[in-house]
Structure formats: C-alpha cells, structure tokens
Specification:
The protein is of the alpha/beta class. The protein contains five helices and six strands, in the order E-H-E-E-H-E-H-E-H-E-H. Strands 2-3-1-4-5-6 form a six-stranded mixed sheet, with helices on both faces. The longest helix is centred in the C-terminal third of the chain and has 17 residues. The chain binds guanosine-3'-monophosphate-5'-diphosphate and magnesium ion (MG).
Length: 182
Amino acid sequence: MFGSSDTMKVKICLVGEGAVGKTSLIRKYVLDEFDDRYISTLGAKITKKELRVEFPDNGNEIRIDMTIWDIMGEKGFRELLKEAYFHGAQGVLAVCDVTRKNTLPDLESWISAIETVTGKVPIQFLANKADLKDQLTFTESELREMSAKHKSPYIFTSAKTGENVDKAFFAIADAIAKRRVA
Ligand code: G3D
Ligand code: MG
C-alpha cells in the first residue's frame, strides 16, 4: 500500500504522428517554454518531472516520479524499436493535431503498437494546437468516438499557449496512480 511519504515511479510515452506537437508539449510542461523555431527529435528523448497526486478518500498524497518518453513519429522506427520504447510504460498520451485530420485515426496504430508491448494501460487523448481551433479539421464528435472506443478521456491542448498542458500530464499521472493503488 502506498503511504503519503512514498514515491511512485511512472513511465509514460507520448505517441502520435510527426509534427503533432509531442516535443513541444513536453517542453512546455517541463520547462514552461515554447520554442517556435524548429524542434527536432532523434530517437527517443527522456525527461523527468515530479508531481503529486492526492487520494481524497484517505487524505493521502503521493509523489510521482514521472519519466516522459518522447519518440520519433516515423512508423518504420516504431516497428523496429517499439519494445525498447514502450517496455514498462504505464500510460500513454496519444496526441493528434486539430489542423490535420488523419492524425486522429492514425492514433489507432500507435495505440495497438504500444498495447502489444504493455497490454492495456491508461490512455489520455490530446487534441493539440487548440490555439488553431479555427483550422479544426475534425469534429469533436469524432474525438469523442475515439475516446469512447478506448474508454479514455480527451482534452484540447496547446503547447503554444499552454492551455491544458499541465492538466493533461496530471490526468495521466492521476489515472496511473489511482489504477495502481486501487
Ligand atoms: P512532434 O514532436 O510531435 O513531431 P513538434 O512535434 O513538437 O516538433 O511540433 C511540430 C510543429 O508544430 C512545430 O512547428 C511546433 O512549433 C508546432 N506546434 C506544436 N504544438 C503547437 C501548438 O499547440 N500550437 C501551434 N500553433 N503550433 C504548435 P515548426 O514550425 O517549428 O515545425
Ligand atoms: Mg518531436
């Protein structure tokens, strides 16, 4: 059982097509910084962040030591390296880009890839680039459908403005912690 002084180690992976904003979201979350210049990722980049999750039932609060894995968007690399990337992951941030329609259905193959390695784990869908909502290319009901299919929540985020970025990372940490302690 986890007590209030315990630390839970958690690994999460961000998945989704290239340029949906995975690297930018992590940057914004960890460094509170958004760099509009080109951001490149080679292979996998691992970042750490500590956060706290409360258990209102018993008043406990636990510390989460979160390891965030940012991986490349290319599908070829995914097949080759998925064991290495996804091994031990306890949660997924599945990111799509509201300005590019296919990035939503493309998440299916990312989710299958991760689930073949980890089994079922909590997923949080992120509809990123919400600051460009005027360029929305899919409806919220399509997002809701995807979400319902995987019994997982979705949230609109913007790595540019920071909208819901903390909330998204917190949500996945919270889901993982509650699942493990329950
Ligand atoms: P990736 O890691 O998923 O491949 P990146 O994606 O984080 O590299 O982001 C791809 C591009 O989208 C970058 O633009 C980045 O600045 C932009 N971007 C990421 N998130 C947002 C967002 O929430 N809003 C807006 N408006 N842009 C975003 P460039 O031009 O550098 O390629
Ligand atoms: Mg990247």
